Amino acid sequence: MSNAVAAPPAHAPESGAARTGRTSLSMNQAINAALHDALAADPRAVVLGEDVGVLGGVFRVTDGLQAEFGADRVFDTPLAESGILGMSVGLAMAGYHPIPEVQFDGFVYPAINQLVTQIARMNFRTRGALPMPITLRMPSFGGIQSPELHSESLEWLFAHVAGLKVVSPSSPHQAYHLLRHAASRPDPVVYMEPKSRYWQKGEVDFDEPGNLEGVDVAREGRHLTLVAWGAMVTRCLQAAEAAAEDGLDVEVLDLRWLSPIDADGLAASIAKTRRAVVVHEAPKTAGLGAEVAQLITERCFGTLKAPVERVTGFDVPFPSGSLENEYIPNIDRILYGIQRVLEYRRG
Amino acid sequence: MAELSFPLPDLGEGLIEATILEWLVEVGEHVERNQPLVEVETTKSSLELPSPQTGVVVRTHGAPGETIEVGETLVVFEVPDDTAGIIGTVPKDEKPKRRVRLNVDLDD
């Protein structure tokens, strides 16, 4: 908060008052602020999930919301993910704007039915009569040495489901504004929170959201583009710093929207650098990196200097905490990927 | 730092209470995980309860001779604020280590 510029306290704005100015927040505080402001701005918004109410969420993301907005707008549910999303369907049909939480990414599997056969299709099925203004929040990806099923990377799954939008923020500023943006849409949005970055602090500018659609150039560069999302953006920025020490000017492209992917923004970056490496935590086979690589190939084949490389998790279930650092792409593996692109020569 | 309370667990099959016999730690004392905290007596046996975690004892509930019900707070600990929630650890933000050096020959 030391560099706050005439900003209201992050957790205690006057109810209904719009936030202004800039302030430093951790990502979980930024998401908390976004939920608070979404509830204040939209009387139809409700927050539901396991432990979101009295406890305030296991990562304190929903801290204080029930005390302020009451237990009829921020409420605890049984430990039943299919019930949480099934109830969200009913709430949406009744005119509410549910913001459900599934406590950990790996526990959304029992609710895939509700997500795929109801939430994603209801608008299509009813010819637009019943849109599903649902924002599903979910702590996602690995990086905190948690037990099995607490560190999945499911963007490939959600991005393939027609009817769902998928977004993942990479900084507190994006976390605030993308969540407000997602919660104000009529479409169902899966909002994947990079849980390893919850404690990352950064400046949130409440007055200038910036462009909330499409890709975000996290770092400008000339020689090669690293494409990433969520927690991997920070790691790619670190890899770009390392590459700069060796004389390579790397651009880091934060994809942000994983469905729909901003193919134009993606192509614009690759057209400039002519080399690309996609980085993600999910297993490589049929991962979203394959889709990104193919979009680049379709749009930039004539100008590419080398095939698009992928640096990803491995084709195994996400391992236990002690092996996590071997599984999640690290700086060295990203640099190896960059090196493979640099060394490619046409025959 | 955060405070974490340790409620009296069920020490047998369906026991509802235990009587404090002797505290083995003092308020302000740093205890290690599995270090004996308190000796209690139930209707079945007397036993030493090990500490469920490392931390500093902030409060103890119940003097010797008093009975505590299962689920009531027995000890409050002060623990470092680096637990990530109910599980996991907060990743350290340190400068990343690199071993790989790039051989940059752009041939543009």
Automatic annotation (TrEMBL), chain A:
Domain Transketolase-like pyrimidine-binding intervals: 25-200
Transmembrane annotation, as ranges: none
Cofactor(s) this protein cannot do without: thiamine diphosphate
Keyword annotations: Oxidoreductase, Pyruvate
Keyword set includes 4Fe-4S: no
Keyword Oxidoreductase: yes
Listed GO MF terms: branched-chain 2-oxo acid dehydrogenase activity; magnesium ion binding
EC identifiers of the protein: 1.2.4.4
Single biological process term from Gene Ontology: branched-chain amino acid catabolic process
Top-rank EC class of the record's enzyme: oxidoreductase
Pfam families with a match to the protein in the record: Transket_pyr, Transketolase_C
Record PANTHER family: 2-OXOISOVALERATE DEHYDROGENASE SUBUNIT BETA, MITOCHONDRIAL, 2-OXOISOVALERATE DEHYDROGENASE SUBUNIT BETA-RELATED
The protein's name in its UniProt record: 3-methyl-2-oxobutanoate dehydrogenase (2-methylpropanoyl-transferring)
Organism: Zhihengliuella halotolerans
TrEMBL record, chain B:
CDD domains linked to this entry: lipoyl_domain
Superkingdom to which the source organism belongs: Bacteria
Any Pfam family matching the protein: Biotin_lipoyl
Keywords linked to the UniProt accession: Acyltransferase, Lipoyl, Pyruvate, Transferase
Protein name, per record: Pyruvate dehydrogenase E2 component (Dihydrolipoamide acetyltransferase)
Organism the protein comes from: Zhihengliuella halotolerans
Entry's Gene Ontology molecular function annotations: acetyltransferase activity; lipoic acid binding
Lipoyl-binding domain boundaries: 1-78
Reported cofactor(s): (R)-lipoate
GO terms under cellular component: cytoplasm
PROSITE patterns, per database record: BIOTINYL_LIPOYL, LIPOYL
